[in-house]
Amino acid sequence: MSDANEKHGRCLCGAVQIVAKPVSNRVGVCHCDMCRRHSGGPLMAIDCGTDVSIEGADSITLYDSSPWAERAFCAKCGTSLFYRLKESGQYSMSAGIFDDMDDLVFDSQIFIDEKPSYYEFANETTNMTGAEVFAKYAPKA
Fold first, then answer.
1. 110 near 28, Cβ under 8 Å?
2. CATH number of the domain within which 96 lies
3. Owning domain of residue 21
4. Contact 29, 43 (CB under 8 A)
5. pTM (2 decimals)?
6. Is the pLDDT reported for residue 28 higher than 80?
């Protein structure tokens, strides 16, 4: 029996299947250099907390992208899958991997100061610079 809050997704080739319970229906965009390199453009992601199950994990390649996070992609087709915080295990899943996500609301952008000039979103969103993101979310020493 499937939970109504569950979202099902997969990579392009289907080797990786994901079931997650997103924390909300909000999509955030990250414009940082690493996200743009990893996903080929700004990363559109959904906070899925830690309630994520993965089939085909042997097809996932993890990249240790910083002291606090790792990124994942399908080793077979290259689909960008998620950004995961190491300490908490919290997943930010790529929005594009999920099926039937018509209820999503695009409402925030981070690292807006790193956004290149060649694109612009029309949506009204909450915007944060990289410094603001680190001030709000970075672990306190």
1. yes
2. 2.170.150.70
3. 7-137
4. yes
5. 0.88
6. yes
